Amino acid sequence: MLPNSRVQLSCWLCAGVGLMLAACQVAPTVAPTATSLAAATSLAAATAAALATSTTVPTASPTAAPTNTPAPTATLVPSDTPASSTAAASPTAPSSPTSAPSATASGTARPTALPTRVPITITPLGPPSTQSIYSTTGGPAGYSSTIQCQRAGGACAPVMPPGDVSFRMTLASDTTAPWTHFINYGLAVEKDGANVAGLFMFVDAGWLQPGTVVGFGASRNFSQPGSYVIRSSGCLTTDIKSTGCGWATIAGDVVTFQIQ
Predict the structure, then answer these.
(1) How far apart are CA 60 and CA 64, in angstroms?
(2) How far is 116 from 45, CA to CA, in rounded Å?
(3) How far is CA 184 from CA 108, 149, 226, in A?
(4) What is the 3-state secondary structure (H, E, C) of 148-167?
(5) Which of the four pLDDT bands, split at 50, 70 and 90, describes residue 116?
(6) Which domain holds residue 243?
(7) How far apart are CA 58 and CA 99, in angstroms?
(8) Residue 239 domain-assigned (yes or no)
(9) Between residues 181 and 23, the one the model is more confident about
């Protein structure tokens, strides 16, 4: 290629289409040949095609969203947030009932007649019964006893204040019982579940014949609060020659009361 052709190519590349003719007005020192003109024409056509291609503005097209971009979602409630606070933050309006109850009553229905009530007769029960202080106990066969408790001229009560208490009692033997020697006979006293020998009320001593009933009296001051049990008791023997005896509770009444 000729040197003039290089000057023309530089002019096309630097100035563009609008300045190409002005830049290439430099008078060549050597007349162009047919070969150089043909090459310049080809170069101009190629340059024009390149410029036409480079100046073409590309058509804008929307950019596709990246596939790894998460779709916008609602803010999650922390797992440790109480359900009550979540419900309070977004209260839900109560849903209206789908159907309202019918307020119209049927006019054809009639109430069923109730059966006639039988009148109730109330019988007065009277005053509450007082707990009895008396009970019974067993003992050796052939003997029996009774005890009556009195205090201040009246009958003893289940609960009494401290003071003197008197007793009337009987001791009896069956007709089939042997002659019996009571070396000691009286009333044994139990306080709060334990026998108290010092409170034994000695009444009498002697022989009890078969089929005989004898009566006695005794009294004692009960000053200590507690629960007391009074029983007919004696040390007896059926051996005429013996001076020893055995203690036994005689069958019959038992008296129980409390001193407060």
Answers:
(1) 12
(2) 126
(3) 94, 21, 26
(4) EEEECCEECCCEECCEEEEE
(5) confident
(6) 134-259
(7) 65
(8) yes
(9) 181
